[in-house]
Amino acid sequence: MNSLFKGIADLFFPPRCLSCHELLISGESGGFCPKCLQRISFLSPPICASCGAPLSPEAGKDALCLRCAATRPPFERCRSVGRYETVLLEAIHDLKYRGVIAAGAILGNLLASCVRVSLPVEEYDRILPVPLHRKRLRERGFNQSLLLAEVLAREFSLTLDFQSLRRRVHTSPQIGLGKGERSVNVRNAFEVVRKAEIEGSRILLVDDVYTTGSTVGECARVLLEGGARSVSVATLARA
Ligand SMILES: [Zn+2]
Ligand SMILES: [Zn+2]
């Protein structure tokens, strides 16, 4: 935003913390007050080198979680900002279910700072949000993952691509399903519709929440099958 415009806008609508709605003191940026920021359980090493799951303190840099050691997920690696609880959970719910669109930019910036330190951004050339089915998109009016991906694309000068991957099946909500049921639920739910755009590209896939990894895993599988060179994943929260 133009800084003069932002200055004027701040006079009339002074920035408030997204979580507790306290006024932010000038200089406090990022959309959260320091107190709420502290309540976010940020994920930091040691984490699984593949899926980013938190590991026990003695785990080494290249250690894998048990699940990835048994079967590597289709994506190269996944990194997330923090645990899906308290401040992060509420903010994601504000965005998804209460339509607080402003949360998209704030959470997008939070995700960008995580990606900057945890993923080799210079190795990607295309950024894709996990698509919503058109029926869900109609209900919600926007794709929350696209709002996040927009911020990352701008921040890292990557091509934003929300057209090449399509959700062709309207799956029932994943809430309450176990890992096995979730995989069945999303199996073949996605398809690559612009193969030429995907072929040979190194993709950063963006989603809001990583639960069992079935959704991003299935997207990655379809993208690789469609000719993508690699797929990595960034999500805001991790259940
Ligand atoms: Zn706060
Ligand atoms: Zn893992």
Automatic annotation (TrEMBL):
<dbReference type="Pfam" id="PF18912">
    <property type="entry name" value="DZR_2"/>
</dbReference>
<dbReference type="Pfam" id="PF00156">
    <property type="entry name" value="Pribosyltran"/>
</dbReference>
<protein>
    <submittedName>
        <fullName>Amidophosphoribosyltransferase family protein</fullName>
    </submittedName>
</protein>
<dbReference type="InterPro" id="IPR051910">
    <property type="entry name" value="ComF/GntX_DNA_util-trans"/>
</dbReference>
<dbReference type="InterPro" id="IPR000836">
    <property type="entry name" value="PRTase_dom"/>
</dbReference>
<dbReference type="InterPro" id="IPR029057">
    <property type="entry name" value="PRTase-like"/>
</dbReference>
<dbReference type="InterPro" id="IPR044005">
    <property type="entry name" value="DZR_2"/>
</dbReference>
<feature type="domain" description="Phosphoribosyltransferase">
    <location>
        <begin position="145"/>
        <end position="238"/>
    </location>
</feature>
<feature type="domain" description="Double zinc ribbon">
    <location>
        <begin position="9"/>
        <end position="69"/>
    </location>
</feature>
<comment type="similarity">
    <text>Belongs to the ComF/GntX family.</text>
</comment>
